[in-house]
UniProtKB/TrEMBL annotation:
The keyword Signal applies. Keywords: Signal. The lineage of its organism: Bacteria, Pseudomonadati, Bacteroidota, Flavobacteriia, Flavobacteriales. The keyword Zinc does not apply. This is Lipoprotein. InterPro entries: PbH1, Pectin_lyase_fold/virulence. Residues 1-23 form the signal peptide.
Length: 745
């Protein structure tokens, strides 16, 4: 025993000597207490991995793989990265919770998708600052890299009950309208749409028979291979949805979906912006797809319409629909008898649809049935900002690069408060009516181009308001869209108020069919400053034409100044009763009278410049049916210039005339100063009673055969001749007209 121990000790000593010699030969012995270097590609010190952990930065954990089944309540961790490698199915009775900021990256094509069984729930709790993102794991991602999100519920569909979903093999459909599959908020799915075949692909998000107890809002599909978001029956609502770059339709609903939707922003889809259908096998299947949609934007181009009303369509009510850069708004396939029947029955109603930047060959619809009134145009904001990214999409979406439209169509009705943008060129294609209680604001520098003859005009109802906020440097211009514009290309501006007229109360305007006239002398129809209207005066008949601006019973609470009519087909500016004042007015090249007032107008006017009118410079009358009607037209005018030639006088005192006091009246190139028809006994009686007073009036450069008046009565003292400056510079352009007017020579 002792001998063996001795041998062990000697052996150990020999080994130690050898080691010592080796250390001496090969360098110093290892440090018995190494320090973490964090940068030498060696795990040392307190590092728990190579150059990480311990006193170094934390080690990056490998992604957590997701696949298989979720059979109990499970919550993911936003601090971890998840890799979806196969199907990940939340089984009935279980719930999956995904917190804000979680990212799931998928690979595996059709094998990789997230499915939620009927009876299961998913809670996606993203925020605008930290959305949940489901995307591709490919370093160069593309549409179709993985499946998508598939949710099955127990709500009704017209495909029946216990139906198998076309992707994911999930059973769906039942009778629980308020079925609750959880809550999905602030979710973005990217590069979905993996393909089984030409007829079978995943969508970004597919909702099969999902019930109204489910929350589905603030969801985006980005660059999906098939539809972005699709509702297959069910009752769930979908709000604040975004679909960008879908390989098929952007948002699709079918199979008896009876939910509603609001605030949808759609751009860059390959086919339809929205495809809405009832049932591909039976267009009359029940329950019928029935929905109310509002605040919708579709930015093209599209190949199957902004809305494809398909396979029976359904009962759709859509309001505030903004469509930009499309060639077709509402597509209906020829031969789709159930869809046509529903349109004829009034089951498709679209109000306030606006067309911006229309593509070449644009059509509002290719539906050829009798009911062409299923849509009405209006001014729409769509999802919030027209074609531009809506405010509510900021921060959590991607790919919304569309700027605001450069042009928009105007037509229809305005019922709320609407403001145009000076950066947009507007095309007035039909009547645009501001309804009672509504208002239209047009900022400085805005241009509106009109086409459509008598159908195209802007009307402001009694009780509505218009605010035209031009400036001398940037007037508002309403003109013709024709490349060769001329008088009568469109109607004009028509404003109706509640002030008194001698035509009575609740009278219908001769153009625009607006009701006007009341007892509110200070009625306020808004404010019009620095406005130029051009090529107006579209003609219904020899006796019925639009004026440039027509003011019917407009009250003194309204501001009306710095307004020009240029080359209108009828009168330039006309006051039909009312009490509004008109200052700094210009009328050039009117096809009838330049400025006209009648029907008991009791406003005043100053600084009027008139030239090139076909008939009277100013036509002032009381009432064409009764020259003595009350209230009598009564006005004080000052600083007036009329440049001829004229054919009916610088002033035509007509149909009872009225009580006129005019000072500083300058005429040039006229052959007749004041015209009074010999048979107008009411007008003559007023002149004899000194109701017409003009002082001083100047007749510069009188035309051949000039007479200052053709009135043959006893009172020839109603006018006094004397020098004056008229509107400011005699026949020359007044200083106040510089910059914002055209055609003053």
């Amino acid at each position: 025993m002792k001998k063996s121990l001795l041998k062990f000790v000697l052996s150990f000593a020999s080994a130690a000597l050898v080691v010592s010699c080796m250390s001496d030969d090969n360098g110093p012995a290892p440090d018995p207490d190494p320090v973490a270097t964090c940068s030498d590609n060696i795990q040392n010190g307190d590092e728990t991995g190579v150059d990480c952990g311990g006193s170094c930065t934390a080690c990056v954990e490998p992604p957590v793989e997701l696949s298989g089944e979720v059979t109990e309540d499970t919550e993911l961790d936003a601090s971890k990265e998840y890799l979806l490698t196969g199907s990940y199915i939340v089984k009935a009775g279980a719930a999956l919770t995904i917190p804000a900021g979680t990212t799931i990256k998928a690979s595996g094509g059709t094998a990789a998708f997230v499915g939620v069984e009927r009876g299961a729930q998913i809670f996606i709790n993203g925020t605008a600052a930290a959305p949940v993102i489901m995307t591709s794991n490919d370093p160069t991602p593309d549409a179709g890299d993985w499946g998508g999100l598939v949710i099955a519920g127990d709500a009704p569909t017209n495909k029946g009950e216990n139906v198998l979903s076309e992707v994911g093999d999930l059973t769906y459909g039942g009778s629980t309208a308020d079925d609750d599959s959880g809550s999905i908020t602030y979710l973005r799915v990217e590069y979905t749409g993996a393909t089984f075949s030409n007829d079978k692909e995943f969508n970004g998000v597919s909702l099969f028979g999902v019930g109204s107890g489910t929350t589905f809002e603030y969801v985006q599909s980005f660059n999906g291979g098939d539809d972005g978001i699709e509702f297959f029956g069910g009752t769930v609502d979908g709000n604040y949805l975004v679909s960008i770059g879908s390989g098929d339709d952007s948002i699709d609903f079918a199979d008896g979906w009876t939910g509603s939707g609001s605030n949808w922003y759609i751009a860059g889809g390959a086919k339809a912006g929205i495809e809405g259908s009832n049932n591909g096998d039976n267009g009359n299947a029940t329950p019928v797809t029935t929905t109310t949609l509002s605040n919708i934007t579709v930015v093209g181009p599209v190949t199957e319409g902004a809305l494809f009303f398909k396979e029976g369509g359904g009962n759709f009510t859509i309001d505030n629909f903004y469509a930009s850069d499309i060639d077709l708004a509402v597509h209906v396939t020829d031969g789709d008898t159930p869809a046509a029947t529903r349109i004829e029955n009034g089951d498709l109603v679209i109000t306030n649809i606006q067309f911006a930047d229309p593509a070449t060959g644009f059509e509002a619809t290719d539906y050829t049935g009798l009911n062409q009134a299923f849509y009405t145009e209006g001014i729409a904001t769509g999802a919030g900002n027209g074609a531009a990214s809506p405010d509510w999409a900021a921060g959590w979406t991607t790919g919304l690069e569309n700027s605001a439209s450069s042009s928009e169509n105007l037509a229809g009705e305005i019922t709320g408060d609407v403001e145009l943008s000076a950066s947009v060129e507007y095309f007035l294609t039909s009547g645009l009516i501001v309804k009672a209680g509504g208002s239209l604001t047009i900022p400085a520098g805005t241009t509106i181009k009109a086409s459509g003859g008598t159908a195209a005009f802007i009307g402001v109802e009694r009780g509505a308001q218009i605010f035209i906020n031009g400036t001398a440097a940037a007037p508002v211009v309403m003109t013709s869209s024709s490349e060769t514009p001329e008088q009568g290309n469109w109607g004009g501006l028509v404003i109706a108020g509640d002030a008194p007229t001698n035509k009575g109360v609740n009278v219908l305007s001769e153009v625009g069919d607006l009701t006007y006239g009341g007892n509110t002398a200070d009625d306020d129809s808004g404010s019009i400053t620095y406005l130029r209207v051009e090529y107006t005066g579209a003609t219904f008949s020899n006796e019925k034409e639009f004026n440039g601006v027509s003011l019917f019973g407009v009250g003194s609470g309204t501001t009306f100044e710095y307004v020009q009519s240029y080359k209108g087909g009828d009168d330039g500016i006309e006051f039909f009763g009312g009490t509004v004042n008109g200052n700094y007015l210009v009328s050039i090249g009117s096809g009838d009278d330049s400025i006209d007032f009648a029907d008991g107008w009791t406003g005043n006017g100053s600084n009027w410049y008139i030239a090139g009118g076909a008939k009277a410079g100013i036509e002032g009358s009381n009432n064409g049916d009764d020259g003595d009607a009350t209230p009598v037209t009564t006005t004080t005018l000052s600083n007036i210039t009329v440049v001829g030639p004229v054919t009916e006088g610088a002033l035509f005192f007509k149909e009872g005339g009225g009580n006129f006091t005019i000072t500083n009246f300058y005429t040039s190139g006229v052959d007749l100063g004041v015209n009074v028809t010999g048979t107008d006994t009411a007008a003559a009686a007023r002149i004899e009673a000194d109701a017409l007073s003009i002082t001083p009036i100047q007749f510069a450069s009188p035309a051949l055969g000039f007479v200052n008046t053709n009135y043959a009565g006893l009172n020839q003292d109603f006018l006094t001749v004397g020098d004056n400056t008229g509107a400011g510079n005699g026949a020359g352009e007044p200083d106040w007209a510089a910059g914002w007017t055209v055609g003053i020579e």
